[in-house]
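Query structure, 135 C-alpha cells:
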C-alpha cells in the first residue's frame, strides 16, 4: 500500500465513526496494539519535546526505508503516535519528509484535542519529519 492509500484508509476508517468518543476509543485501541517498545530505547534523546505526556520515538533505516517505533505513557497519546507511525513507518525518508501530513486535518483530529495534546501532535509530526530528513 502506498502512502496516499494508507492515508486514505485512515480517513475512511475515521469516517465510519459518528462521534468523537468512538474515534477516541479507536485511537486508544491503536495505542494498545502498538508493538512493545524496548525499555533500553526509552532514553532522553528519543523523547519528543513539546508533548505533555512522555512520548518516545525511535527511527532506524532498513533497506532504504525508515522504520519507526514508539511508546507513550498516556493512552490517547500512544494511540496518536501509533496512528502516525502506522502511516509513515516503512516509507522512504524522502516520502515522509516531503509529505504535508494534511490527512490529519481531514480527520479533524487537531481541533478535537485539548490544546496541550494538539501541541503534542504538532511536535510528533515535526519530529517524524526531522528524523526522516536526518536519516
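Result returned for the query:
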Amino acid at each position: 500500500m502506498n502512502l496516499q492509500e494508507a492515508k486514505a484508509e485512515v480517513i475512511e476508517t475515521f469516517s465510519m465513526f459518528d462521534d468523537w468518543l468512538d474515534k477516541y476509543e479507536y485511537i486508544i485501541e491503536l495505542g494498545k496494539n502498538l508493538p512493545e517498545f524496548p525499555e533500553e530505547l526509552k532514553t532522553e534523546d528519543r523523547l519528543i519535546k513539546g508533548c505533555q505526556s512522555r512520548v518516545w520515538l525511535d527511527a532506524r533505516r532498513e533497506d532504504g526505508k525508515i522504520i519507526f517505533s514508539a511508546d507513550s505513557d498516556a493512552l490517547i497519546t500512544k494511540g496518536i503516535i501509533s496512528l502516525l507511525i502506522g502511516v509513515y513507518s516503512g516509507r522512504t525518508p524522502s516520502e515522509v519528509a516531503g509529505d504535508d501530513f494534511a490527512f490529519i486535518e481531514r480527520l479533524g483530529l487537531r481541533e478535537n484535542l485539548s490544546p496541550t495534546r494538539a501541541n503534542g501532535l504538532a511536535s510528533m509530526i515535526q519530529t517524524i519529519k526531522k528524523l526522516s530528513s536526518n536519516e
